[in-house]
Amino acid sequence: MKKSLKVLLILVVLAFSSFSAVLGTKVLSEERITTDPSYHYYPAIYGDIVVWRDNRNVNYDIYGYNLKTKEERRITTDTSNQDYPAIYGDIVVWQDHRNGNWDIYGKNLRTGAELVICTESGDQEYPAIYGDIVVWRDNRRNISNRDIYGKNLRTGAEFVICTDTPANDLYNPAIYGDIVVWRDNRNGISNRDIYGYNLKTGQEFRITTNNSSQYKPAIYGDIIVFEDIRNGNYEIYYYNLKTGQEFRITTNTSAQYNPAIYGDIVVWQDYRNVNVDIYGYNLKTNEEFRITTDTSDQNEPAIYCDRVVWYDTRNHNYDIYIAYLDVVCETPKKSLPINWIMKKFGLGNKDKE
Ligand SMILES: [Ca+2]
Ligand SMILES: [Ca+2]
Ligand SMILES: [Ca+2]
Ligand SMILES: [Ca+2]
C-alpha cells in the first residue's frame, strides 16, 4: 500500500474513533451459540473459542464452540462431572470429579492431549489460567479452610500462593500476567477483602481496605474489578494497581454481580430491570451501556476483546449467547494499527488477527 493511502486511512480511522466515542459503546449483534435442549452454564472465552459446562449427557461435561467455523465440540467424555472451565490460548482447564473428589484437569485443544494438573487429596476447584500458569482454590490441608495454589504447566512445578491462617477461607482466584487475586476472609466474615500476590516477586498485598465486604475479583492489566456491598447493595468497583486508586463503577440501587473485564470494558450481571441483564462500562469513556434487553435472565458474563458471552434462560433451559460490541480491543499480541485499519475497511486477509 502507498504511504499516502496509509496516512489517509489513519486519519479516517482517527475521525471514526472519536465519532464512535461520542455515540457511545453499543452492541453490534447478538447470536445464540447452543441449541441443544439441555442446560449450558458458566461460559469462558478466549479468541474464537467459547467453552462451558454442559449437562446433555446427564453428568456434566465441558463443551466448546468455534466462533469462526461454527463448530461445536465435546471436550470431556468421562462419566463423572467436569465443571467451571477456564481457557487461555489452546488450553482449557476445569475441575474434575473422576477420582471421587475435585481435581484440576485440562486439555490442549490443538494436540488433543489431556492434562492432569492436580490430583491431590481434598478438593481443587475454580481454576483460572493465564499463559502457562493455572491457579485454583485448594482444601488439601483442611476440609473447611481453602488455600490458593498454582502450577506452571511448562515446568510442571506446583506452588503455594496463599495459605494464611487456619480460620481464613479463600475464594475466586483470578490471574493476569504475574498477578493472582482472590477474595479473602482474614479481616472477618463481615469484612471480606480482595488480596493479591505477585508471582515474580513472591509478595502478597492487600487490595481493598473498606470495612464492608468485597467479593469476586477479576483482573486485566492493572485493573482489578470486584463486587462491593459498602452502599448496602452489590455494586461493581475497580482498583488500579498502578495508581493505587479505587473507583465505583455502578450506582444503581439494584444488585450488580459477577464482573468480568477485558481491556477498557467491564461487564456484569445486573438486576435493575427486575429480570437479569448484562451491562457494561467503558473505562476509557466512563460510560455505562446495556448489553442485553431480552426479558428473561442473562447471567455470569465472560469477555474477550469485543465478545461478551453469558448463559441465557430465554429458551426455558440455559443457553450460551454472545454479543459483539463495537469496541476496538487491545489484543495481547502487539500489532501495528495498520493491520486493524486493513481489517476494518475490508482490505487484505480478514482472517488474520
Ligand atoms: Ca462428564
Ligand atoms: Ca483432589
Ligand atoms: Ca473489606
Ligand atoms: Ca434480561
UniProtKB/TrEMBL annotation:
SUPFAM superfamilies: Tricorn protease N-terminal domain
Source species, domain of life: Archaea
UniProt xrefs under InterPro entries: 6-blade_b-propeller_TolB-like (IPR011042), Beta_prop_Msarc (IPR027618)
Coiled-coil ranges per UniProt: none
Identification of the protein by name: Translocation protein TolB
